[in-house]
User: What shape does this take?
Amino acid sequence: MAKICLVCLFPISALDKMVHWHDAIKQASSGPLPSPAVLVVVGVFVEAVTPVMIVLGWFDRAAAFVLAGFCVVTALFYHRWWKYPDFWSENGKGRAHLWDFLKNLGLVGGLLLVVIAGS
Assistant: This one.
């Protein structure tokens, strides 16, 4: 049950990227990495496949490692809260990015526990 709770948001995120393709491309374009369409396709694949592998215990350590890497890349390149001068303002974009950044780090921690402990 813990693994399901840990990864349940990823397949929904993958579906959201497919349904709202243009928004996903826009978000991928907001970061410093090239080829936003390729990034979104890779993201959809990672978010759709690795959670299933983790829950089923099929190469769960490798899947958790890949998904943790995905979360680190997303945090560092797409939730750069420190880049926003209005960070401390009530409606500042930086605050939302801080929470997304921290959420990703929390997920990385949980996923690394799967990497260490496995099935």
User: Anything to note?
Assistant: The CA atoms of residues 45 and 60 lie 16 Å apart. The helical segments are 2-7, 9-19, 21-29, 36-56, 60-78, 93-117. The radius of gyration is 15 Å. The mean pLDDT is 93.
